[in-house]
Amino acid sequence: MIRNLNRNVMIAIETFCSNFPTWIDAEGKAPWEIINGLETILDDRLLRLTQDYIINGTVAIHKTANVEQGVTLKGRIIISENCFIGANTYLRGPVFLGSGVKIGPACEIKQSIILNNSATAHFNYIGNSLIGANVNFEAGSICANHFNERKDKRIFVMHKNQPMDTKSEKFGALVGDDTKVGANAVLSPGTILHKGSIVKRLELIEQRKI
Predict the structure, then answer these.
(1) Which DSSP string corresponds to 79-117?
(2) What CATH number should be reported for the domain holding residue 172?
(3) Does residue 210 lie in a domain region?
(4) Which ranges of the chain have pLDDT less than 70?
(5) 172: containing domain
(6) Residue 88: which residues within 8 A CB-CB, separation 6 or more?
(7) Most buried among 50, 51, 63, 155, by the most CB within 10 A?
(8) What is the rounded distance in angstroms from the CA atom of residue 85 to the CA atom of residue 103?
(9) pLDDT recorded at residue 16
(10) What single-letter DSSP state applies at residue 124?
């Protein structure tokens, strides 16, 4: 279970991500706390990987993964089995990609977890987000992680009609398994999408205004 900062409401991670990795300790942690602590989580995981990974410094790539030319890998990154990373993509760690994840050409993924068999098409940005399994982002869709336009940049999320203060200025989205995000759609900072959500093309999701 993931606790709510309002105490009387809980976010259960399993209601969003059915097979959340057991090696990530989510007990008592909000999704933004997991993302904020991802660098330490991956540091520990890098020490426990098998010989199926090629490890170069803080970057681990499974031997079955396909990383095309022109990809930039920075910081702590784990790319799991059967992943595909398209040309000219930028992974700005800490980043964890589960098995079978497909990242299309010219995407940027920053400080995020993307779980098994999820995919981004091309020209996508995902920042400070936790993405479930079998999620698909069509071309140009965005998980924004920062309120550039506000004086108070602190991010709130809405869960069960209650605002939750992340106490952070950087958090993108919690996206449940099997969600589909249409081309050029934007998930504003603090978005929460349940399993099987559909975001239309060009749609703006803005769940909390302050």
Answers:
(1) E-TT-EE-TT-EEEEEEEE-TT-EE-TT-EEEEEEE-TT
(2) 2.160.10.10
(3) no
(4) 1-9, 208-210
(5) 2-48+56-205
(6) 70, 71, 105, 106
(7) 155
(8) 5
(9) 96
(10) -
The CA distances from residue 165 to 60, 90, 116, 131, 152, in Å, are: 34, 30, 29, 20, 12
* Token pair for 102: 């497909």
How many distinct structural domains can be found in the chain?
A: 1
Q: What is the pLDDT of residue 209?
A: 52
pLDDT tens for 41-97 read: 999 999 999 999 999 999 999 999 999 999 999 999 999 999 999 999 999 999 999
pTM over 0.70? The answer is yes
- The length of the chain in residues reads 210
Q: Does the annotation count 194 as an active-site position?
A: no
The pair of three-digit structure tokens given for residue 197, joined into one six-digit string: 């959500």
